[in-house]
Amino acid sequence: ILDSAILLKFFGGKGLRPFFSILSGMSDRIVLGGDKGGAGDARMKAVPDDELDGSDLEPSGPSSPKRGKDQRTERASKRRGGEGADVVPALDLVQMERLLEAHSSRILKAQKDNLEGMMSIFEQQTAEKLSHIEAKAERADQRSQNVEAKLEQMQNQLHDLLKTKPAPQPEPDRRYTLVFGGWPRDTRRQVILQQLKEGLERLDLVQHMDSEAFCTGPRRSTALAVFYPREQESEYMVRRRMHQVIMGLAKTHVAIPEGRRLFATYSKSRAERAVAGHAGWLKRTLTAMGAEYAALLDLEYATGTCWVGSSIVASATRPSEPGVDERHLLRDEVEGNKVWVNVVALASELGRPQREIARPRPNWELEIRSWNLGGSDEYAAPQALRDLGMLDSDHVIYLLQEMSRREAGWQTDQKGLAFSTGKKVGEWCGWERPTSIQAVRSRYIERWENDDDGVPQPIGRMGKQIDCVCHKGLSIPRVEICVDTYRCLGTDHELLRAFAGFKGEQRHVRHSTRPREWIGGPEVINKIDHDILKTMAKQCTKPKPGKGYRDSQEVKEAIQKARSDPSADNWKAVQNLRKKSRRQWETERIREATQGDWEQVRKLRAKKNVGWDCHYAEQQDEGEAHNSVHKHLKNIYETGDTLPELPPWQGEVEAFTLDELDMALQAGHRGKAVGLDQTSQELLQGICATPGGREQLLEYFNQETYDLLLWGAPQLSCSPDSSYSVQNPKSESRDLNSAAVKEWRRGTCWLKVDLAKAFDRVDRRVLTARLLERLGMGPEYRCWYNLLRQNDAVLQTSWDTSVLHMHGGIKQGAIESPAFFSFLAETCLHEAASRYKWKDSEDTYEGLALNDLLYMDDGLQWSRGVAGIEKRIAQWGVVLQEYGLQINAKKCQLYCSPHHTGERTIKIQGELIQASNELHILGVTFRVGITSSELLAPLMAKPRAKFWGGLQHLLRAKTPLAGRVRLMERILGGTVLWPLAALPMDSSSLGLINSLQQQLCIWMMRVSKRHDETWVQYWERAHRGARAVVHKFSGKRWSTVWLERWWQFAGHRTRINMYETQNAATIIDEYRTRTWWREQQSRPTTGIRHPGHYYPKLMNMERDMDRAAGGPWREQTYNRQGWNSKLGAWLAQKDLPWASMRQPSLEHA
């Protein structure tokens, strides 16, 4: 008898359910073997293998009693009357062994397959890891080989340099050489030599000279002159002549620019200058302390020794006095000389404290003003200090406590002053604990009358003084407590002033770029050059005063009263009057902004990206914020590919006239930031208003061609003869929308192309070569050439100022830069099309020889598959590299029509780009089958975001509604209406844009739902009022503006056919027009048919335009007056009614 435990042990618990089901169904035992007569075999019947399959057996688990009873009954009936009722199912040993062997083989096979699968996965992962390791090892080997090659190359270069380097020459004899000085650093050589020659001739000292003076470089601050012994002249007589030159210049004041005087001295070696410099350094140090101390010094420059009184206090060659404590000496080593200063002897002879002599005197101080505002406005602190007569300067930092802040963390705000504020979570005001405190001024005092510093405190107050100054790493010699300053803000905290000293000169030089205004100049102008212009810019103009808040006369009188009687009530009155005055100023400023003052609008709009410099500096190493920006820009602009200088021009040049000068000045804008020379549009207009200034300015511009081109130049007209250019972004929207509408299930693919750092990467050599091909070698080309050749840029950040030498790229913001780049980009695309014969390939649309669009640095390519686009992009990229440009693959976007069945990926410069569901160009979304309302969706989202993002305080202000409506039309209307001239409309889109206009008016009117009206009534009342406002103040609904712009732009597109060169908008607009389709329909057998059923949106639009024009509308466009006269019929036909409900009047809603 087989026990279930034996089977369980044999099979390991797997696959036993079929066998248990068979065994449980047998009524007799399974007999192993049988009697000799074979009786047992007669009663046994083998069970087929297919009946042992677990899929056909009953599920495992205990069956219900009812089901078990039915099964036994069924088996009993089968035994009694059914087929084979006398046969007892049984298994013999051979069959059982065969069954177990088959099942074990299946188990072993499954385990083997599983093991082999796991091993294959393991081997695959191991192989991948090993391949990565081998690749890294190969790259490391390659890098090491490159490093070794570079080291070997450097060694060879160093070896060659040492072989070719001449032997060191002995230092020349400086006994017969004079040094002339007094000029500022980096003065031009010609200026130095000319002024020196004039000075020597004036003093009749030229007769003592033996040779002409010279400079050792193009820009220096000194000049040299060598003397030689004359015939029968000894060395003493040569030195005598040299001394006469030195004394002649010393006795007579020979002035040179910037208030300096010319001097001469003997030339010294480097070691001699170092020795003399030690004595000069000590003299300058004592002069900074006071001129009376420097007068006590006796100096010997030859040895660098200094005496004060009876003591020797410093020397560069002599040893220190014996017996002097080493702690009293300051020692250093300069050019091999061990210099020293006796601090104790110097302090004793001068009668000054030793710590003052030993401590380095700061070159400049930074004032730190710490004040606890007690919840007051942060802008009240500087204003209160001005009331007390404490003026601001560039070297003042405010540390303010208990400022009201809205959000946790650090924020930066800038409204005249830059504020960086911090707040912890759960606190109403921000406070940060310093990591280490070196000095804290705080104490417990029972009664405040006079503290240790003699500062009177309020009597009758008990508690702890909590105001203190903590510093680390700074030298703060003194801290001042400003008495009674707490009354200015009505708090309990005094202002603390600390002064931090810094050694060394300030490296940061920040140039003012504020707009300037004319304040008056000379009565008559007789000459103008560059230096005169710079001088007049500083003397005849001043920075334009801001329009910030200023105290009224009533507030000023209250301040004077509070100063004379500094009581808390008087200062409280000042605060109340100032709040009232400031509130009136804010209201007036908003009223001016809503009435059309764009300067106020710009100031009141929310500023973006404020405080980025603080966050950027935190991510850089200490003191490296400016250098990181400078290095980044230097890698872009300083390419080393400079343009050579052209030879002088020998031909004629047509001078500019006074009328052209007036036109150039009228085209300029006032109130713009100025450059380093402080010249501005206001300066030029002031010069022209002065007698003689207009003519002299024109003469200066005609002589200085480079400056002339900066202020007024003829526009470049050398566009290539191709149809690849797009004149404006409206045309690009029109072209792409028409192409998407006319896709006709062709499976077209579009690729938007972006050029990386377009203006910055232009190769000037290629640009000048292309300009030469168009303009020829003439005065105009030479002017553009010199403009591109001589370029330096001043980089000014919040941390420092530096100069960049721009060898490549074109200036951003210059008037000529867009024309340059547009010309170069179109030329590059045209050259790629000609070189690789794009026109010979099959067009995407039959009869439309246009497969590219280009607008500045944005391009668009389309084809029936991605293969054609990928090929053209690779070819275009080759030509772009020759122009110094390249494609930014990360900003490219691929869109494939839903009818496209091929590949939907493209590779550009190694980047794999997947096709997207939409194409975004200039903020407008395009796709095949898009409706006009869907086109408007992103355009309508921007006005809402602008309204609530930074204009709600202006548009919802309590000022006259007419001005606010006009402001909304100019700002928000321009945001949504700019591309509509190129987008076809329908009734739903016209209604949608009108609803947006009305909704903006409802928000401006502050219309809200009343408690006694339903939402339907509120909606009806709000929109009726908005329609009345639009009709009264705007005059036109946005649907009317859309239809007008469409009509005018359609005429403009068609009239371009009058010229030889067509743009892409005209080419696409003329492709398969309504007239062409009607002609095809008239050919039943040969005419072109659509591949499916379409809604003829553009054809219906042309039908409506024909109806409004009274015939084929394209023929009417060539008559401008006649075309404009048809506008009324177009509006009457397409524009929507003002209201679809019963609204009696638009003026009284």
From TrEMBL:
Residues 93-164 form a coiled coil. Pfam families: RVT_1 (PF00078). Residues 37-84 are annotated as: Disordered. Residues 539-926 form the Reverse transcriptase domain. Keywords: Coiled coil. This is Reverse transcriptase domain-containing protein. Signal peptide: none annotated. InterPro entries: DNA/RNA_pol_sf (IPR043502), RT_dom (IPR000477). PROSITE patterns: RT_POL (PS50878). Residues 67-83 have a biased composition (Basic and acidic residues). The keyword Ribosomal protein does not apply.
